[in-house]
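note to self: the first set is below, dont mix up w the second
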Amino acid sequence: MTVIGLDIGGSKTQAVKVSDAGAVLGEALSGSANISSVGPAEAGRQLDLVLDLVGVDGVRAVCAGAAGVETPSGAAVLTKLIADRVPGARIRVVHDTELILAAAAVRDGVAVISGTGAVAWGRSGDRHVRAGGWGYLLGDEGSGYWVAREAVKRTLGRIDREEPADRLGQQLAADCGLQDTSELLDHFYAQTERRYWAGRARVVFELAGSGDPASRAIVDEAAASLAAIAVSVGERLGSKGPVVLAGGLAVHQPALQEGIREQLAPHGFDDVRVLTDDPVRGAVLLAHESISRD
């Protein structure tokens, strides 16, 4: 009854192998195996790395939660990649947001992820819907990448208006190792790694906490955007939650959590929780569940 849970995010892939008694037999990390971001070849390479580290002998089932599996074709590609590496195992592929509710021990509710990207997913009975998760080129408002990009845009806007650099621009440039805010434009296009910019969101939250109005405005807009996709999911399901917040930004930034709560309250969402377990634990539970259905 040994199973493997996989949490495939935009920045990394986490694997946990667990026995039927709940004992952790192996844990490992590798780069992202998100097929929509890195392509099938690189996704397969990262799966090779992480599965070799935990071992696949005797594994009865694998559940992978990943972005980029919204379409049947995307799910089929990832399913085959895993099946080729864990022969004979039952393979279950779900959107990564589904792991959040499972890890939070919530059957019906709304999950909101704000990390490198941003998305909401919810379930009520046999029905489930999602909102957001369009990727950094089309959306992901409220994500770490979006927060940093907004900071860059506002800084460049000040340069266009021939206004002096503000605290946000100065601190952001310094955090990037730059001498002047005028260097941010070239640096943004030269540094294309989304995880790099998502990490710069920390600067915005630190300044917002010290009262910087430009940073505070970005944080408020991020909270409003995340609350909006949660409301979109909840209203279509006829559900008022609970809402479970997950992802690096949502979990580690109390100001964002509070902003989301304030935005959700007028819509009747009064049960907002922050995920305390790794989402990969939800993948393990879903993998065991797939065996029990046999």
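second set (the one i keep forgetting abt)
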Amino acid sequence: MPFPPDPQLPQDPPQGQGSLPLRGLSLLVVDDSRFTCDALRLILHRAGARLRRAESLEIARLHLAFHRPDLAIVDLGLPDGRGEDLIAELSAEGFPVLGISGDPDNRDVALDAGAAGFIEKPIGSAAGLVRLIRQLATGAGPLDRAEDQPVPSGDLMALRDDLVRAAALIAAPGDAGYALAFLRSLARASGDTALETAAQDIRSGFDRAKLARMIEERVATLGTMA
């Protein structure tokens, strides 16, 4: 299922009263979830960064062949392979990389591959993420610890698109391992504990049908919010 194009952002982030600690930095987000990417976009764009997104290893490598951002954020579970492979490639070149995953057990996997840090979904602190990226990408000292702002939620229609994609992946023949991992990560990022639990406990066709109905219900509810 192809990804719809991400919405265009203005060339320059909105100016506020405070400084833009990531002004001038170019970041690459390699993540297959539009919902997660939208939340990252809101945080980092407001801090002055420019973001590009790749939803697979293949697209990320094509992008990196022509453009080198200041830092990459790489999801561990991707549709065409494991994110730690890309992390290892980039870190071997001295390139700063952050791993990201909805599974906290992936922290060690990312760090062992050479990641300079790890982000767990859902993101706990917007200010903490900005500080970490600034230090890794520029080598600058820590910022003053201003009061943190609430972490923005991703766009609900992006969440709906991700759920539709998850449903199609789960219904497809073959191994549903990637599809279920994608859904668990999405459920965790969106705070949907019931869906996360259901995606962890698939033992029969009945369980799979129950999970499909849960996804359908959420897609229908989100559709009424459009």
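remember for set 2: The chain has two domains: 26-138, 156-223.
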